[in-house]
Amino acid sequence: MERRPLIIITMGDPAGIGPEIIARAMAGGELLDVCRPVVVGDAAVLKKIIGEIKLPLRVNPITSLADTAPEPGKMDVIHLNLVNLATHSWGEPDSASGTAVVAYIKRAVQLTLLQEADAIVTAPINKAMINAAGYHYAGHTELLADLTQTKEYGMLFVGGGLRVILVTIHLALKNVPEQITEAAVLKTLRLAYRAASSFGIDKPRIGVAALNPHAGEGRLFGNEEWDHILPAVIQARAEGIDASDPLPADTLFYKAKNGHFDIIAAMYHDQALAPLKMVAFGNAVNVTVGLPLIRTSVDHGTAYDIAGKGCADPSSLIGAIKLAAAMALHRTLRTREDR
After folding, report:
1. How many whole angstroms separate alpha carbon 60 and alpha carbon 68?
2. pTM higher than 0.85 for the full model?
3. Burial 246-280 (b: 16+ CB within 10 A, else e)
4. Which of 194, 223, 269, 328 has a CA that sits 20 to 30 A from residue 157's CA?
């Protein structure tokens, strides 16, 4: 029997829905069929939410991954003891929350780089709180890149039969065109090509989205397709990457959904996420590509407005954990083949 991957789940913001969706995912029991899940966080917070929503789940604090022994009805937690339960309140984050989430992530990265774990799955954090705590990162992705000393990385989403990687991430729309450079597009195509092996795809077909309507209509609506995107595609093809010409996004997603492409390279955030969430809202998974480790995450935020109310949906987290486990198995198989 193939060894089940050991997946670390970081608890996310203690004041958000992270603790609840983790507890619900673990209480369901289905994850044990595909992996050995271990949480890095605060056991007291997890015990609190489990008691409040009355889940049939026991928290087992541990200090080392060597102590984990997954079984139904039990959740192993590497307990960092960073949350003061006397002042903890659902939906009310503070800078201490930011300090805690960064500590969870650092421990998870350390254990995974030491090859004690196979992948990391992250529950949602509040970017403002980690910055208030003195950690100046735009989010999880940038923090993970810094901790792993990764220079080239990207954000890829999976859901609803689609895989979409972004050329630009969190930018004002007015600033996107100046960031669509040949170098940026080529970097994204290379990342997409390498990431495909983690999904068991050896020769990915990459559909490249145009920036402008009708792919610029022969420069009538913009020059980016001709001046930046197409040159990157040509260079990618010279490297053996199967990338399409820049295609209008209004038809590209339809073609990918129907099996014509394995991955879409989208030029900006909402170009990618609007259609993907239309078909996979609440179930999509965020994958950070380019890192020396596997990291997946939920496709939603901390949802302070419903934190602690017992109505958070764990679907995206369950999907992220299952995808991380599958990616870890593909990586193991690929490593064996390369020997």
Report:
1. 9
2. yes
3. bbbbeebbeebbeeebbbbbbbbbebbbebbbeeb
4. 223
Beta-carbon count within 10 A of 114 CB = 9
CATH topology identical between 1-150+291-339 and 152-289: yes
Cβ 98 vs Cβ 135: under 8 Å: yes
Backbone phi and psi for residue 6, each to the nearest 5 degrees, phi listed first: -95, 120
Q: Which of 162, 169, 238, 233 is nearest to 199 (CA)?
A: 162
The CATH number of 1-150+291-339 is which of 3.10.105.10, 3.40.50.720, 3.40.718.10, 3.40.225.10? Answer: 3.40.718.10
The mean pLDDT of the chain is 93
For residues 120 and 8, is the Cβ–Cβ distance under 8 A? yes
Q: Could you read off the pLDDT of 32-58 as tens digits, one per residue? A: 999 999 999 999 999 999 999 999 999
Q: Which two tokens stand for residue 232?
A: 């990157």
* 8 A C-beta contact, residue 42 and residue 100: yes
Would you say residue 1 has pLDDT above 70? no
**CA-CA distance, 150 to 188, in Å (whole number)?**
14
At 285-328, the pLDDT tens digits run 999 999 999 999 998 899 999 999 999 999 999 999 999 999 99
Provide the residue ranges of all domains of the chain, joining segments of one domain with +: 1-150+291-339, 152-289
